[in-house]
């Protein structure tokens, strides 16, 4: 198991907690504690971005990301998505997450790309899912209406 990364903060007279709040997007309490300690542990629960440092995206990257997200959708979600979640939304979520992680060291591996798309789709599905038999006016719809019949 990897040790969490510590970010060293130079404590000086001009270091202000408000600068840390705006720079690292942390709370006021966390910023004050970091100044007191002299270091700050990065939050790994937030989604990370890996900027492209020494290379550029290939011209057909978006097309390849679209194909990978489509593959993840077909293998795991086709015919098993709630009625209120669109296929295009899931695929777009996978492509967006791939673009965010384009500079990751393992990005060249197809397995890594597949699981990045899959996990992005799963999180989108969990956050945007309603109960299949919700409580709205008119009662519960027919169960056949609750699930998408995606035969595409």
With helices defined by DSSP (H or I, 4 residues minimum), what is the helix count?
6
Proportion of helical residues: 40-55%
Biggest sheet: strands side by side, in what order?
1-2
> How far apart are the first and last residues' alpha carbons, in Å?
42 Å
* Major sheet: 2 strands, antiparallel
Point out poorly predicted stretches: 135-140, 147-152
Principal-axis shape: elongated
The H/E string reads EHHEHHHH
Number of DSSP E strands: 2
In quaternary terms, these chains amount to: single chain
Whole-number average pLDDT?
A: 75
Using the CA coordinates, give the radius of gyration.
21 Å
Output the structural class.
mainly alpha
Q: How many structural units, i.e. domains?
A: 2
Strand content: under 5%
What does this structure look like?
With 152 residues, this protein is mainly alpha-helical. It has 2 domains: 6-41, no CATH class; 61-146, no CATH class. A two-stranded antiparallel sheet has the order 1-2. 47% of the residues lie in helices and 4% in strands.
Blueprint (SSEs and pairs):
Elements: E1 6-8, H1 17-24, H2 28-37, E2 39-41, H3 61-76, H4 87-100, H5 110-128, H6 143-146
Keywords:
152 residues, mainly alpha, 2 strands, 4% strand, disordered C terminus
Short description:
With 152 residues, the protein is mainly alpha-helical. The chain is 47% helix and 4% strand. Strands 1-2 form a two-stranded antiparallel sheet.
